[in-house]
Amino acid sequence: MYPCVTSPPKKPCLYVKPPRKDGESWNIDDCSIATCRDGDIIVKPRECPPVARLVCENKFPPVKVYDEDGCSFLCEMYKCLCYGWGDPHYVTFDGKYYGFQGNCTYWLVKEIIPKYNFNVMIHNYYCGHGLSCPESITIIYKGLTIYIIQTQNNGITVNNKAILSPAYKTTDFRITTVGIKTVVTIPKINAKITFAGLIFSIKLPYNKFSGNTEGQCGTCDNNQKNDCRLPGGKIDPSCPNMAHEWHVNHTHCEPPVMPTPGPSPTPCNTSICDVIKSSVFTECHKLIPYDPFILGCEFDVCNMHDDHVGCTSIEMYADACADAGLCVDWRSSTHGLCDYTCPSPKVYKACGPPVEVTCDTRYSNTLKYYSIHQSTPDPMEGCFCPNGTILLSSNSKECVPTCGENNDDCTHHCFDILLFLSFQGYEYHVVPTQCCGRCVQKKCIVSVPPNITHVLEVSLEPAPISDAIAGSHVRG
């Protein structure tokens, strides 16, 4: 008699919400089906029946979309993609290019008839030579407010709470950053918003937002004639004039002063802009029209008298290419002018993942699910650990050659931390051998009349308190 040989049981997929059994399948977006196979998730696209090829007003290739129920094929349609860069230049959802020099807070996108409770605002500021630049983006969705300001340390807040992790997710949205760009995705409405200081983009599905957007990004309906829509529905012949009318009501905004024609300007060197037309972008030229980016690049270089500002137009064009699924390693073609230096030990990669994997297995598995939730995650440039190393944890800047044997021994998952902005003076510290770190008080925040705030370092030794703050109270 031969002994019985049994196969080990198949693993379920426990890191998805809700957890899935081995062999279980489910829809993850309009175009993809996921199946749990022995602890791994396999994603396959749905098959589309043949349809007539559509021509898109914004010159982008059409994409396959589905009915609201996600089961019936609709047809091939184009995506609503609005983007802006530089000081600043705008391309509407339907591909209309214009420049606008306002320095207030404006509505980029509003729903004409509220359906998903989704809106986006932008704040511009004067950045020199009478020109304005984007400073921050505010996303409003289902009562939540996501505020992103691009600084050296990337400020991201959700409902006035600061996010301390490079990746954060809730049931409604995902936020990721790899050092250069911050990306907010809203899976339920397939929205994607990218912000990187001088550049931004908003990508919306046509089948959900067709004919129902207004603001500086225009109306997404494959028709450029109504892109300069004013509040109230009238169409302005000038998009720059229209753009000013979308200032947020509670901000005081003066119309931007249009420059008066002067003497013929001194010819300027715009050779940096030729990178957009060069062979490095040959494959992208087949997908994305580059004329608006050339116009914006030449305007910036000639008006700001700085070749480096041309990098912004090239970066925006590369982002549009990446959004179409084509990653381009372009910075090396600028002869050092547009190089990006990452803080040590991170290194720059042009085509990295949207979220960096870490030694925290549960964190990485969660992000793996985030990546497959987009059937074809867009590549992102950013700062990553060098090849052959891996990031120790989401809250660490250390790159290690191996993770060790106990990285999966945690009995619970360490969720991303939200820190109230008013609760200052605390820092997150990694605790060796433990799954999660902890918040450690490093400073005391003391306020005294009239509305003066003092920041005091925490010390183990008693220190005299000056008369100036003797009667103060501690906020943090």
UniProtKB/TrEMBL annotation:
InterPro entries in the record: Mucin_vWF_Thrombospondin_sf, Ser_inhib-like_sf, VWF/SSPO/ZAN-like_Cys-rich_dom, VWF_type-D
Segments forming domain VWFD: 80-254
Domain of life according to the entry: Eukaryota
CDD domains associated with the record: TIL
Transmembrane segments: none
UniProt keyword list: Disulfide bond, Glycoprotein
Protein name as it appears in the record: Mucin 5f
Species annotation: Sphaeramia orbicularis (orbiculate cardinalfish)
